Amino acid sequence: MTIKDQLIMGIETSCDETAVAIVKNGREILANVVASQIESHKRFGGVVPEIASRHHVEQMTMVLEEALAQAKVDVKELDAIAVTEGPGLVGALLIGVNAAKALAFANNIPLVGVHHIAGHIYANRLVAEMEFPLLSLVVSGGHTELVYMKEHGHFEVIGETRDDAAGEAYDKVARTLNLPYPGGPHIDRLAHEGKATIDLPRAWLEEGSYDFSFSGLKSAVINVVHNAQQRGEKIVPEELAASFQESVIDVLVTKTVKAVKEYEVKQVLLAGGVAANKGLRETLSTTFADMDVEIIIPPLSLCTDNAAMIAAAGSVLFEKGQRADLTLNGNPGLEITIHNESSR
Amino acid sequence: MKVLSIDTSNYVLGIGLLDGETVLGEYISNIKKNHSVRVMPAIQTLMDECGVKPGDLSKIVVAEGPGSYTGVRIGVTIAKTLAWTLKIPLTGVSSLEVAAASAGRYFDGYVSPFFDARRGQIYTGLYKFENQKLLVEKEDQLVLSVDWVKMLNEMDHKVLFTSNDLKLHEQVIKDGLGDKAIFAEITEHNPRPAELALLGRDKEPVDLHTFVPNYIRLAEAEANWLKAQENNK
Ligand SMILES: [Zn+2]
């Protein structure tokens, strides 16, 4: 007897990408369609929530259709529809959630709500099988977290940012240097062209803490620029970018290494949009090269927001028996929790 | 021919089911409570009670706005997704047109339904029934109620006003129109989902993928950006 393949659709609209994917058996991408709105938001220097919501309504059914066509899958064949329920922009989340509910209702398919960060972490399962216990370093525009997982669906946040997310700090520093939005990739590029010559602070916080803080670093960068202007000196953007990036990566990697040792994990997974950062990828790879722990870094397309990661996380939660009903709502401040069969 | 209608464009949440010439059922509430949580369960309950399965539907009709941006998007998203996956036509109907039909079907004169849009403004339009057909006299728009009433006064006709926000603009209307203003009874203010279904049943379907709500207004950031572009010329 052959076991039937599991087909999960993922829907993700938490920020400025309208995304739908179909994933087979939690690991194999059959389709991963992302309609990015970045060109539309560029002119505003950041994502405008109302405009993001409007674009999602325009794109939703087209992206659904494209994903099913690419996967050569009929809606009726789906085992479940997994959708990002939060965190994110509330108006944006509502589009994905309500499309998912309508689709689930019309075709009588189970519905699973997925935490956006759980999605980012599970992007790694599309690359390599997870081995527990593991640690995930989640770095994005809205998040900087160290998440410990002892098994599938179990998420324990052991450290998080107390102020700005790393990605936020990147955007603010980019603005200070008059770089176009989104600034992260520009800083990363400049950092590779310069040397870290400027002394910038690293927020280690109290002994033993896995929390992060980037607002002090951001202010220090602004001060350096400001002081230079007052003295009529020129800042070399490459040097400032390199110094800033070195400080961020130093803290991220050092804390990750410490947690890896304390929690004795088998794997380290990099997750979130900032995981696309070349400097971070390189430093992590070299740091863990000599250690007895496997580091997994997803390709760029799976680091930024996409729906394959939501389907991948949804696949596991579905197997664990997690179900949402038609009252599922978008929840902008959703906390990542430990999901088990008795919850919900 | 079974038509499902959905209206979440304002506080009123309305779901209707029309089967040929029979209204099978309606769900209406007029409360300030999360549409996103309540619409799909309302659709499910009404369809279950009426013994209609999703596959039995032959058309979806949605109130396309104006109204709350978020509210209208919820209804339009659900309507588009249902119509797309069930492979049936979708039609959008002005939320104001539904309100006009709900209160003014037998009124001999103009009907001005409106929704409050804050800072003295209203979303409104001017409608008129002629031989059982609803005609649009003035397109849906965003306007100061004072200016709207002034314009209506110059037209010199009786006007029926219907709105759940009537109290907010009643004085302005009375001051501007005097005896020419007629106010609908409170039982007429909720736009009726069966009217929405009926109006939409006879309208041309829209292009499903490109269909979007009628917000009337640009997003604030977009309006500001356009203004800045103008100034930089
Ligand atoms: Zn993300």
TrEMBL record, chain A:
Keywords: Acyltransferase, Cytoplasm, Iron, Metal-binding, Transferase, tRNA processing. SUPFAM superfamilies: Actin-like ATPase domain. GO terms for molecular function: iron ion binding; tRNA N(6)-L-threonylcarbamoyladenine synthase activity. Pfam families: TsaD. It catalyses: L-threonylcarbamoyladenylate + adenosine(37) in tRNA = N(6)-L-threonylcarbamoyladenosine(37) in tRNA + AMP + H(+). Binds 1 Fe(2+) ion per subunit. Its cofactor is Fe(2+). Its EC number is 2.3.1.234. Belongs to the KAE1 / TsaD family. This is tRNA N6-adenosine threonylcarbamoyltransferase.
Automatic annotation (TrEMBL), chain B:
GO terms for biological process: tRNA threonylcarbamoyladenosine modification. One of its GO terms (cellular component) is cytosol. One of its GO terms (molecular function) is transferase activity. Keywords: Transferase. SUPFAM superfamilies: Actin-like ATPase domain. Residues 24-225 form the Gcp-like domain. Signal peptide: none annotated. NCBIfam families: T6A_YeaZ. This is tRNA (Adenosine(37)-N6)-threonylcarbamoyltransferase complex dimerization subunit type 1 TsaB.
